[in-house]
């Protein structure tokens, strides 16, 4: 007597719900991520000064790190693109003052180049950031 074999069903894994969950998690993390400003990641040790006065926080700020990295506001820029960026940002502000935050280990020649570029771009005043000496 010949018996028929029962058909064996292969188990299948339905991946559609898994893909849906992965995409939902991806979207959730993209929406809830907080973006950190580059300026806060760039550590700059300002030089100290005995004299000087405070300036308003609304000025255009150029940050120069010790390794030569230049930030115009919150975006990294190069020396060749700096003039266009400064003139574009100065048109947005009422005050023509440019604040330069240079690390005390930054090259002096690069600071002078940035000052020259800022003047050529239309800055009326230049201010250099420093920490106040207590004493």
UniProtKB/TrEMBL annotation:
Domain of life per record: Bacteria
GO cellular component terms, A-Z: plasma membrane
Family: Belongs to the ExbD/TolR family.
Spans through the membrane: 21-38
Species whose genome carries this gene: Candidatus Wallbacteria bacterium HGW-Wallbacteria-1
N-terminal signal peptide: none
Pfam family, any one: ExbD
Protein name listed in UniProt: Biopolymer transporter ExbD
GO molecular function, one term: transmembrane transporter activity
A single BP term in Gene Ontology: protein transport
Membrane topology reported for the UniProt record: Single-pass membrane protein; Single-pass type II membrane protein
Subcellular location: Cell membrane
Keywords for this protein: Cell membrane, Membrane, Protein transport, Transmembrane, Transmembrane helix, Transport
């Amino acid at each position: 007597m010949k018996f028929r074999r029962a058909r064996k069903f292969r188990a299948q894994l339905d991946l559609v719900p898994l893909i849906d969950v992965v995409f939902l998690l991806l979207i959730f993390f993209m929406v809830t991520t907080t973006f950190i400003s580059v300026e806060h990641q760039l550590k700059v040790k300002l030089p100290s000064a005995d004299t000087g006065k405070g300036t308003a926080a609304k000025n255009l700020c150029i940050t120069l790190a010790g390794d030569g990295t230049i930030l115009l506001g919150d975006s990294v820029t190069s020396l060749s693109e700096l003039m266009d960026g400064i003139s574009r940002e100065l048109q947005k502000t009422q005050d023509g003052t440019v604040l330069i935050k240079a690390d005390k280990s930054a090259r002096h020649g690069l600071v002078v180049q940035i000052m020259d570029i800022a003047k050529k771009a239309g800055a009326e005043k230049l201010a250099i950031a420093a920490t106040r000496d207590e004493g």
